[in-house]
Amino acid sequence: MPVAASPLSDTADRKVADLAKALAHPARLRILRLLLATPGCIGGDIVDAVGLAQSTVSEHLRILKAAGVISGEISGPRVCYALNPDALALLADFVASLKVPDSALCCIPNPKAAP
Amino acid sequence: MPVAASPLSDTADRKVADLAKALAHPARLRILRLLLATPGCIGGDIVDAVGLAQSTVSEHLRILKAAGVISGEISGPRVCYALNPDALALLADFVASLKVPDSALCCIPNPKAAP
DNA sequence: TTCGTTTATCGTCGATTTACGATTGATAGC
DNA sequence: GCTATCAATCGTAAATCGACGATAAACGAA
Fold it and tell me: Which residues of chain A does B18 touch, with a Cβ-Cβ cutoff of 8 Å?
């Protein structure tokens, strides 16, 4: 048994990967930035800002909502989107966990040197 | 001019999105976890650990390397991979920037109430 | 009710991703 | 030289993604 990943992190990996996938598109990042920078409610203004078709933006919003990164609240004829910053905690934890303390960064070229 | 995203963040968005895409797969997260947990050098052991074909694992390694998240050093007949934690700084910054200070989280349903 | 506005969904297309086996290239040892 | 091993690359097939126009649904206002 050479190396083994903890089986516990199997589902966690999927969740983190889903969060990362939600952020893996410039248009979605721009939407998140927009939501962060806009104090009030924005609806169709998002469409103008990202420069894509309304249906495309709606799809991106759906993906972000499915990942839990944003939440949409119906407010009259329009929908109000708000950031859900806590939803990214798992991803943030993973990224932070990779901040290795400057050890384990080198190579042991000898294959049989593994005590 | 209702809302406007800063045009400066346009290329930054692409970079962050590319980093997020590199993390957007459970196998790649597992590889990163493996590299973090393994003090020395691991080559083909990664293949056993993730349970995918050697060519598939090699492709994931290529993606991680292209994103700068890992670096591979040839060491004799095998290749030694090491984490590149600083490469994720942009992504970490973005995630951290979404930690809005508990304001701007509500909805202004009235579209014409924007002083 | 009817009209205009806003958002969601559907269908479709091309591009990208993921996975695999097979092959190639490089290296250590005989 | 030859052989074995490890990693990268080459096709290739299935699945997913991203974008669009067209359409539908929900709501407020006239």
Answer: 24
Distance separating alpha carbons of residues A51 and B104, to the nearest angstrom: 24
Q: What is the pLDDT of residues A4-44, one digit of tens each?
A: 445 556 788 999 999 999 999 999 999 999 999 886 667 77
pTM of the predicted model as reported, rounded to 2 decimal places: 0.81
CA distance A53 to chain B (A): 17
Please state which of the four CATH numbers 1.10.3720.10, 1.20.1290.10, 1.10.10.10, 3.20.20.140 is assigned to the domain occupying B13-95.
1.10.10.10
Environment class of B32 (CB within 10 Å of its CB; exposed 0-12, middle 13-18, buried 19+): buried
**Does the domain spanning A13-94 belong to CATH 3.40.80.10?**
no
Could you read off the pLDDT of B54-77 as tens digits, one per residue? 999 999 999 999 999 998 888 777
CB contact under 8 A, A109 and B38: no
